Amino acid sequence: MSISKILTSLEKSWERDDVLLKIKKGLSTEEIVNEFLANNQVKIKEFNSLLRPEDIDLLNQVGQLSECESKLINKINNLNYSTNNENHHTINQKNISPFNRVPHNKISSFMINWSNKFVVFALLTISAIALSKQAWA
Questions:
Q1: Would you call 44 exposed, middle or buried from its count of C-beta atoms within 10 A (0-12, 13-18, 19+)?
Q2: Number of folded domains that form the chain
Q3: Do 47 and 10 form a contact (C-beta atoms < 8 A)?
């Protein structure tokens, strides 16, 4: 059997839609791969016997490509998770009732005004006490 016929046969055995259905049914990737290897053991052995050294290099490069794609998918999923988490946090912040939430700028302006008034009042009181002590002395 030629290498192209073996590859065509293996490709038909590894239908992506069928693999996806198996994943949706709850099979692990290890189970899916082991099942494929068991069902196609003869073809895979024949395929390996027909491989040339440059084919093996190409096969390794395809494996590295698959690893890169897997890492890319994981990073995209992580970005989506963090974006969704931030969106969920923003939605939760919007759901807080306005009676329980006071804007930070109002709190800070209140504190600044209150502290300024307190300092001015304290200085006026100290000045008044000092002046009255001088007047009575």
A1: middle
A2: 2
A3: yes
* Contact between 6 and 49 (Cβ < 8 Å): no
Dump pLDDT digits (tens) for 92-111: 555 544 445 555 556 566 55
Residue 42 lies in a domain: yes
Residue 15 lies in a domain: yes
Contact 13, 39 (CB under 8 A): yes
**84 part of a folded domain:** no
The residues, any chain, with a CB within 8 Å of residue 32's CB and separated by 6 or more, are 19, 22, 23
128's tokens: 């008044």
pTM for the structure as a whole: 0.53
Residue 137 inside a domain? The answer is yes
CA dist., res. 44 & res. 51, Å (int): 11
